[in-house]
Amino acid sequence: MNDLANITFFRKNIQKESAWSGSLIYFNGGKVYYNTFTNEQVIWQNQEIPYEFYIDMAYGLKISNSFSMAVTSRYIHSNLSLRSHQERSIANIFAFGISGFFSSETKFYQNFDFQYRLGFGISNIGGKATYHLYGKEYFLPTQLKVGGSVDFVKNNHTFTYALEFTKLLVPLSPQYGYKDENANGQQNIEEETIILKGKNPNCLLYKA
């Protein structure tokens, strides 16, 4: 990653206890040089700067004094193509997310004031990214996060214990191989190629 830019804004509605927010994230991978090897010579062909940017819009609402939720929509533009190449490697994807947050009231326990919080979030819910019209499809990194924290306050000092779990909700990229039946270390014609780890990239993300 070479260049990174982030613009964020938000607007809070105190009367309705809600808030809007938006952000723009841009980054590129720096200069990429494309060369060819002809007659034992390296010939410079082109120079490109692959880039991506995200546009997020989110709305949060305080449902009660202790619980709030938010939804997020995201537009992703990924451009990894060569301008001089006929087949453009560009992907445009829409995704969304949902999150919730619970905060307890401050309580007293064994000379401490304490407060606990719980939260969850699911991000990048959407379809697959395709860079060519009939090209390979890639899963968005849909993630589930669940966590909580406890604050202990005494004599103007705060001690916080926090824990978070993250789970990837899409199949991992497959790792292909074969089952070596005769233990010779080489793949024979009879030994078909199988997926050793991960999932089939042609599988569905959601099942009814």
UniProtKB/TrEMBL annotation:
Superkingdom of source: Bacteria
Residue span(s) of domain Type IX secretion system protein PorV: 4-173
InterPro entries given in the database record: PorV (IPR045741)
Protein name in the entry: Type IX secretion system protein PorV domain-containing protein
